[in-house]
Amino acid sequence: MKSVGNEHVAKQLASLYSSEEDSDCVVVFCVKAGSLQDTSATATGKPLPKRQRVGDGSVSFNNGGRGDLVIVGDPLPGHQLVLRFASEHFGAQLKQWDAKKFRNGTSEQSGPAPATVDGRPVLRVNLSQEEEEPSARTAIRYAYTGDVQTASIREALEIRRQAVNLRIKGCAAACMEIVKAKFAEASNTAVINYSMTLVDGGSSPTRGGCDAGTSLIGTAATGSQPALLPQLPPHPVLELYACEVLWPDLAHEPEFESILQSAKPQLIHYFGNVLQTLNSCGLRQQFLKLPPTAVEVLLESDDFGTDSESSILLLLATWMEANYVTIDACTCERLCRQVRLVQLSRPYLCSILPMLALDFETCSVSGPPQPAIAAAGTASGAPVPSISANTATVVAVAANAGINSGAAACSSSSSSAAWFPIRGAEAAFICSLATTQPPLRDALLAAGRKLYDLSSPWYSLRRRRQCVPATGLVYHWRISEQDLTQALAMLQPGGLCCTTGTFRGDSDFNYVVAGGFEWWPSIEYRQGAAEANLGLYSRMPGVYQVPGSRFTGPKPAVAIVAGVDADLSVHHWHHEAFVDDGVYFSTSKDIWPVGGGRGANVLALRQLQPLATAAATDVCSKGAGGGSSGMAPLAAWSEYVRDGEVAGKLTLLQPSIEHRHGAAEANMGLLSRMPEVNQAPGSCFTAKPAAATGPGANGNLSVPHWYRPGFLDDGVGTSKATCPAGGGRGVNVLASRQLPPPAASVATADVRSAKGDGGGSSGAAPLAAWSTCGIGR
Fold first, then answer.
1. CB atoms within 10 A of CB 376
2. Do 57 and 141 have their domain in common?
3. How confident is the model over 548-603, as pLDDT tens digits?
4. What is the mean pLDDT of residues 437-457?
5. CA distance readout (Å), 491 to 483, 486, 495, 613
6. Residue after which a domain boundary falls, among 652, 673, 701
7. Do 457 and 496 reside in the same domain of the chain?
């Protein structure tokens, strides 16, 4: 076998690094005096390198009039035999030194004498900042040893940058291999997301059958408090995007493009889906620190799951609130263009999107609204170019309705209230387009093609991955015994108290995000009543209420009504076991103003005999620690208070039949999924799907359609239909009856009690439209 070289010589050369033995040159690290930080400790608390102004002490050389230089750190003993051949940068300096030395030894006219230390030539390394000095030393070490010592992706990229500047052969490629290896290690290792991992009496979070990309806030129903596991090191993909400024130019480093492509699915897998990101304090904070490039990767992906496109817009608004002042208008528009506006829920389409457009038109500094005319040539039906998502080049498109194109758009600095760049005319067009049926929809598309960029993701009908599984997404909530006791103690005769619950998790959230709104449970009790009300409340997310926005102010600027498909329940303890008493909510019938709530009396309290006044004074509260008034009211709650709290769960549901509120038809589809028996621990079928599958089934899916008085089958043929495993396909085949609007009345959510309480008749009105589909038969 042919040897690459004499390993004994290579070992001896490696040992010479930073050694004075046989040293015949000196390497110094210099920065311009104006770029130095204060001599006090840095923000990181680390001591700054030693400094020496060039010309002081034993080192001096001419800087060609380019300003004062300061040497940082200790000079590094060098060896010409190594540095001359390993680095083109040092090789060129040594050639110049040889030439000057030759001229100084002759009678020829020469310039200043070359810089020396004890007669050895000085090789200069120019740095932009003194923090670059350690990575420059490590790059030089590679010239001796042939290996890179680094513990992180950031360090590897910093060393690579210095290796490129010094033109040290092979070092940049070695750094890229380290980055690749860290990503390969991360992809082959089951990385536990610390923010979603809880220790709760040995119980694991209830997943409700969701995929690996869907994590939950909440723990198994026990009385212990959740505790965090030790924080894990940052995921490599977060490190990579956190040091975007160190990325090489893709035009010169095409190999780095493959690293970015492999990083995208890992970034999506890490955050999982919108609900997981927004409903976790840890993930939310990490998301807010992402650069725009990483946010764009999430927003443009079909695999980044969500319950609704409205939650995608809320996620972007959350990031914008924290980062809007750090980005330019082009970046802002590029991110906003990734939201698929035609898929927004009706509350967002009809209420929130118009308000965002109004904020943009009134708070933007780009001038008055312009006609939403596309670029030249579009009037004849020519396609309008879309905004490029390339991270290296940002192209501003004039087809953006009313937004100034080119440098003007990139240089504008609007109010933070004008963060979403859409005009009112286009917002109205999108709302009409999303809520109309053919053939009016086709006519709108033909007309809008002359005015708007219909190739933009705003008009995309591609569905994102649904993050709510068929079995529901469970969030566990609690109300402490102390909070309940205090609320009851303050009740006056006939008075009403309201106690809100908090959700378990890495941080006790007092709300859960779903459908673009915030939701939380509440228990209401009126003094002397035999039952207590379990309700679900909603509110407008605070991230929309930025200064100057129409969303701010004491009085709402727009009326918004919304609903959620969910099951809210409370644990009812009986004979050391519990059942769930609860309320079912459906977006087809349970709609109420945002900022309010709805519920039902499902907590049946124990009826107690009145206590004698003297006896009552001797009774002490078990958990309130505040006198004698707590025991009597809490005794009636004994079947709900356990381990110092009232507990329950909120289960977000996925509608089995897709029905847009107000539509004349409903969609019936056939869903598929990978069998769970294939998802054994360690199998490539676990976590994110390892392969894309597009199965199909030869069959006919039908629903009985009752008509005078027999029935016939309306159905879907599936012989030629295929869809990704985990998805579905269907057709609008359920023609619901068109009914006149019912008389105004106060609807009540369906009550679902373990004791069999009926639940009332609040669902009859919306179900009447489904009577021909067999409802009630």
1. 9
2. yes
3. 898 987 777 789 999 999 999 999 988 778 889 999 999 888 899 999 999 999 99
4. 93
5. 13, 9, 6, 18
6. 652
7. no
d(CA 309, CA 329): 23
What does the pLDDT average to over 22-35? 87
Parallel, antiparallel, or unpaired: how do β-strands 120-126 and 25-32 relate?
Answer: parallel
In 10 A of CB 251, how many CB atoms?
Answer: 8
Look at residues 681, 654, 675 and name the one whose alpha carbon lies nearest to residue 725. Answer: 675
Domain count, the chain: 4
Angstrom distances, CA of residue 93 to CA of 83, 84, 89, 90: 10, 9, 7, 5
Instruction: Identify whether 449 is part of a domain.
Output: yes
**405 and 448 part of one domain:** yes
Output the CA–CA distances (angstroms, integers) from residue 565 to 346, 381, 773, in the order listed: 14, 42, 21
Write the DSSP assignment of 365-428 as a string of letters.
SS-SPPP---STTGGGTPPPPPPP--SS-----TTSTTPPPTHHHHH----GGG-S---HHHHH
**Structural domain range at position 413:** 272-470
Residues 637 and 718 in one domain: no
Other CB atoms within 10 Å distance of the CB of residue 64: 6
* Measured torsion, CA atoms of residues 542, 548, 549, 555, in degrees rounded to the nearest 10: 80
In a domain, residue 18? The reply is yes
CA 532/CA 605 separation, integer angstroms: 7
Count of Cβ atoms closer than 10 Å to residue 285 Cβ: 13
pTM for this model (two decimals):
0.72
Residue 58 CA to residue 698 CA, distance in Å, equals 86
Beta strands in 86-224 (DSSP E): 116-117, 120-126, 198-199
Quick check: is 138 in a domain? yes
CA distance 576 to 695: 47
Q: Which amino acid is at 565?
A: D
Q: Which of 301, 243, 257, 256 is nearest to 277 (CA)?
A: 301
For residues 635 and 677, state if they share a domain: no
Distance (Å, whole) CA 442 – CA 566: 35
Residues 534, 620 within the same domain: yes
Classify residue 679 by burial, with Cβ atoms within 10 Å: 0-12, 13-18, 19+.
Answer: middle
Question: What sign does the dihedral 41-46-52-54 (CA atoms) show?
Answer: negative
Q: What is the pLDDT of residues 690-703, one digit of tens each?
A: 554 555 556 666 66
Which residues 6+ apart lie within 8 Å of 227 measured at CB?
198, 199, 200
Give 126-174 pLDDT, tens digit per residue: 999 989 999 999 999 999 999 998 889 999 999 999 999 999 999 999 9
Say yes or no: 759 and 686 in one domain: yes
In this predicted structure, the answer to whether residue 650 has a pLDDT above a threshold of 50 is: yes
Q: What is the pLDDT of residue 415?
A: 86
- Residue 87 to residue 163: CA distance in whole angstroms: 9
Polymer length in residues for the chain = 777
pLDDT band at 776 (very low <50, low <70, confident <90, very high): very low
Question: CA 30, CA 23: separation in Å to the nearest integer?
Answer: 20
Per DSSP, the chain holds a count of helices (H) and strands (E) of 22, 26
Dihedral angle computed from the Cα positions of residues 606, 612, 614 and 615, in that order, rounded to the nearest 10 degrees: -40
For 750, the enclosing helix (H) or strand (E) is strand 750-752
- State the amino acid at position 316 in one-letter form: L
Residue 78 contacts residue 18 (beta carbons within 8 Å): no
Residue 299 located in a structural domain:
yes
